[in-house]
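Re-running VWA domain-containing protein to confirm reproducibility after the cluster update. Everything else is unchanged from the original entry.
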Amino acid sequence: MLSEWYQHIVFAYPYLLWLLLLLPLLIVWYTLSQRKASSSVTVSTLSIYRSTGTTKNVLRHMPFVLRLLSLVLLIVAIARPQTRSNEERVEGEGIDIILCMDVSGSMLAEDFSPNRLEAMKKVANDFVDARKTDRIGLVIFSGESFTQCPPTTDYAALKSQIYAVRSGILQDGTAIGSGLATSVERLKESESKSKVVILLTDGENNGGLIPPSTAKEIAKAYQVKVYTIGMGTEGYAALPQQTAGGVVRTMEKVNIDEKLLTEIANETGGNYFRAKDNETLSKIYADIDQLEKSKIETSQFSRYSEEYYPLVFAIMALLLLEVWLRYKVLRKFP
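Result of re-run:
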């Protein structure tokens, strides 16, 4: 326990610890003075008592030992031992971000490991972990759109909502326009200087009440920057489907409207990315993280707690014990 305490100790005046080098000199001085004071007369008739000792003989050096220990503790105390705790304060101007995710049935395709949906959820959570002061929300869409989590700085709650995303909870389809419009709706009242939507889909718009072109114009009107991600390999991907005989995997052609996604991104000030596997998807979110950096100011400061008080009490106790020994136990005259 003492070693753990010492590991966290720093000294305000560590140079005063050099005074401990005086201790050997004091020990030498005391030894020499004791030899000088001792008698050199030898009485043969008293040789039988040489090996016998009294309590006073045994304890006669204790006052010096106690004084020496007191001096050690005093030197350590005036060096001001302290414990330090470092604290960090993070302040800054965050960005309001909406993660707009496609949860249609095709997101269960297995060209990503284990499938597109789970791969998307993992990189989204990693993206959230990398942010510090941003408000981030979650919108999901398939044939319709839904706000799964409004913009928040409670990242634990947001991540739990991302993990809870499932395919089939909304009407199936791919309503890109509705998903984007709902995302912009969540940001339009934002006072942040930077508003961003990260829209991910694996298909072409085929549903919803709002056309993608209209949603794009709404985003431009509210100065919302849109990053778009097309998710899917080239060619065909295995898609599991539940049938009466069990799960059957069929090969479905990957159709991503890259022209539309590029147009939405370019006209709103964002970029379009194509993710063909888990690695490129992770890199895309990392790239967006670098493109949209928050203005963060970090200040560090340390708090010190004085730890010399126990030493002062110990010094007082040792000095009182020395006085008691010197004037009670070792006194020469009654």
